[in-house]
Amino acid sequence: MAGLNDEQPYAGFLWAGRRRTDSSLLEREQEQAELTEVVAALGEGHPAVVSVTGRPGFGHNALLRWTARLAEERAVRVLRVSGSPAERDLRHGAVIQLLTQLGEVTERALRVLREYREPDGLPGLLELLHTTRRTPTLVTVEDAQWLDPASLHWLQAMVRRLSAGFPLVLLVGRTGTDPHGPDWLTDTAPSARLTRHLTVRALSPRAVAALAEMIFGAPCDEPFAAAATQASHGSPAVLHAALHCLADAGHRPTADLIPQLHTLITGIIGERAGRALRSLTDEATAVLRALAVGGDLLDFTLICSLAGLRTARESQLRAALETAGFTVPDGPHERIRLPVVRARILEDTPTDERAALYARAAHLAHRTGAGDEDIARFLLHAPPIGEPWAVQALYGSFGAAMRRSEFARAAAWLNRALDEPQHPAQRAQTSLDLAGVEAMTSPEASDRRLATVANNPGEGERWAQLRLQALDMGLARGDAAWGSRVATQALATAHGSERDDLIALYWYAAQAGPEAADVPAAGVPALPQHPLVPAQAGLRAGQLAARGEHREQAAELARRALEAGHDAPVIPRLVAIRALWLTDAATEAEDHLAAIVAELRRRHRRPTLARALVLHAELHMRGGRLDAAERAVNGAERALPAAAWHPLAVPHHMAVRTAIALETRQRDQARALYDAPVPPGSECGVHWPFLVFTRARVAIDEERWAEAVELLKETGRWLLRRQWINPAVLPWRSLAARACLTLGDREQAQRLICEDLTLARRWGAPSALGLAQLCAESLAPREPAAGPREFTPVPRGPNQLAHAWALADIATEEATNGDRTTAARLLTELSRHTVTHTSSRLAERVRWLATRLEQTATLDDDSTLPKEWAVLSPAERRTAELARCGLGNREIAEQLSVSRRTVELRLSSTYKKLRITSRQELRARSRPMERT
Question: Are strands 13-15 and 168-175 parallel, antiparallel or unpaired?
Fold first, then answer.
């Protein structure tokens, strides 16, 4: 904002080079004009009563002093009175101030007023009024809110006598924003025309800018003025103090000073509030402290009860607090005006008294039926209550905060709940729930808390479940070493079913770590080959599936684990779900997984939920449901931020995210994930091969074949070390074979695909075997003169994405070799895959194939076409060719990148030109186009 020009009057001051008037009168022109009229009328003998009100620091006293100076300049006598907290209990203190200024005339009245006994009548009033007949008088009363009752009574009597024509003006200033003036003036004046009520307002940004220019001697930035106005609420007193402080430090009013300005103003407001607090009565102070604690919830009657006032004069207390500028009325409530004032009030309250206030507020809120979160806000600052409702309110608040994803607040509620007396098992349950929240922001603290619960020696079924849940949740975050250590410690004292479940969790941790352990730790038995315990059955099913052995037994064991429901730990059930999915029972497996996810959401088990959602995302992705996969992986990131995952679990999440980006043609994101560093130690965990395999797919997409082969070999080496040879887990051999063939290494490609076929037959899942057969067919050598290749349809199975890509690769190979008939047939089958509508990358390949087939068709000798096809346009011919191959209208529209309506119109025109009525006739009339 530019500076003001010389000699430009504005809002009560004049800028004239370095000369300036009272800056406390900024934007008071209207009030000054009215007061000037009052003084002028007083000179003509007209009495008046004027009240000037405003919030503390808004300059009402400055207006009174300005008016006094104006009156003196016009030969009007001025008598000044000022109220103060120190004299509010001094009887007739203000009257004594007033009469002392009259000299000998009021000496007798002053002696009476200073006596101990109550005087008769109104000493000195008549003497004052008589003097005004000779000398017009202005009486100013500053800070009238602090006047003693006797002085108020005396002044009221003076106001009632003004109608008799005494040339006297009473000018009263006080804090408060009542537009009708001080309460004691209401209905006191004998005539409404004698009274005026002025309210001083907050300064505008323009006035603040002008004030800053006066103080700094430099132009003020608009953002600085706006920030100063907002932070100070337009208070001239606060602004004066803050701006002078900054100017004295050599600063200029620019935008970069705003943070420092905010800090300074907050401190000034707090300091002013602290000084004002010391001037309140004990009752008002107690009520104000109660308001600082419970004013947001409790009405003023309850606040008085909270403050311990049994016979409170509510209206007087409210008026006192409003007059002092601390509060504003809000129906039955009284609100503290500013947060910084509330903070200062709480800061000035002794610690023990503040804690007791919060405890009483919690009791009041509970008795009045307040919500859990309202009660919990009081409990958070209160000492232990020792009643069941306190823990219930804190737990209810915890659940509400979790539903809003306010994890820090949820942790605060549970930390406070741990301060309450609870049964040891309930306290352990609270610690378990708290650890689930702490995993979001402080994973190490969460692990320590879980280890404490897992090693608690409590007896009974409930304690056994708590220990298992703690270990289960800790393993979900991915720290295998932690899991092995805690499980071993817990096994030392466990027995019965708890011991059986702990054995399963130990073996999960042992096999998920950097080196899969076959030799157990001391005191830990081996995992049975044919376990009956559900948790152990889930682990054993996962082992058989990974090794590609005994598919039917693996499915039976997986079902045994899953049928146990929530009685079994979650981690073994997730292992069982993957095993069951690999046996081709995908729908059953995913139904169980959806139930587990719902269970974990309900119980707020964030780390375990995140692990389940990543698995769900992987299975959705492999099934070609990419939208669902992306929702699941996003949900996993919300359940547990990436920074909270243990390094051993990070690769699984990154692999799924990379694969989704690749299939949805977000190649930049896929490449960024490919290049992203992983936490140290990630390459040692059980999920590492998934990430390496996905990186190989990115390399193939970018046609970096040699790099892809090396990545796939690394995948294979890792899997072979763990004896994970099942091609259904990761089809790395078939992918490596295609890369080797592209690089010209047919011998290596044949060896890899033969191994894949052998292992797929050994596993026996139809989808795994069918996928291996498709890959083998695509890599089989062909004679140049051979006719169209015949493919035996194979089951799609759950891994629809891999199946669709195998078809796309074969169709691409046939189209490249000129076998349009086989390529078109494969394209037809591929187009029926729903995954071609969810994978943008696969849809791109399908469109390329359709275009390639169209281009090949246009190069065919016209003599092979029926004569009547010559009448078709190129667009109609392309559409008719795809319809001849068996594609539906939706598939044709997708491949040609047109609408279904366009396809319908082209086919309708084709039928009309060829004088046919159906696709069967179209295929019959177009057989000369097919190669034989």
Answer: unpaired
Mind listing the pLDDT tens digit for each residue in 363-409?
999 999 999 999 999 999 999 999 999 999 999 999 999 889 899 99
Nearest of 651, 647, 625, 637 to residue 839 by alpha carbon: 625
- In this structure, the dihedral spanned by the alpha carbons of residues 646, 651, 657 and 663, taken in order and rounded to 10 degrees, is -170
Alpha-helix residue ranges (DSSP H) falling in 702-819: 705-721, 732-742, 746-763, 766-779, 800-816
d(CA 282, CA 340): 21
Considering just the CA atoms, what is the radius of gyration of the chain in Å? 43
Spatial contact of 281 and 248, defined as CB atoms under 8 Å apart? no
Is the torsion defined by CA of 475, 481, 486, 488 positive or negative? positive
DSSP 327: E
447 phi and psi, to 5 degrees? -60, -40
Dihedral of alpha carbons 822, 828, 831, 832, sign = negative
Tell me which DSSP letter residue 494 carries.
-
pLDDT (tens digit, 9 = 90+) per residue, 843-880? 777 777 777 776 665 544 455 556 677 788 877 877 88
Q: Is the dihedral of CA 100, 101, 106, 107 positive or negative?
A: positive
8 Å CB contact between 46 and 165: no
Contacts of 160 (CB under 8 A, 6+ apart): 188, 189, 190
- Can you say whether the dihedral through the CA atoms of 816, 822, 824, 830 is positive or negative? negative
The amino acid sitting at 533 is: V
The residue written with tokens 């429901």 in the block is: 565
Distance CA 442, CA 678 (A): 20
Nearest to 127 by CA among 104, 156, 111: 104
In a 3-state reduction of DSSP, which class is residue 711? helix
Provide the phi-psi class of 525: left if phi over 0, else alpha when psi is between -120 and 50, else beta.
beta
In which band, very low, low, confident or very high, does the pLDDT at 512 lie, cut at 50, 70 and 90?
confident
- SS3 call for 52: strand
d(CA 851, CA 847): 6
Most distant CA atoms of the chain, gap in Å: 138
- Strands of the sheet containing 137-142, edge to edge, are 77-82, 137-142, 168-175, 48-54, 195-199
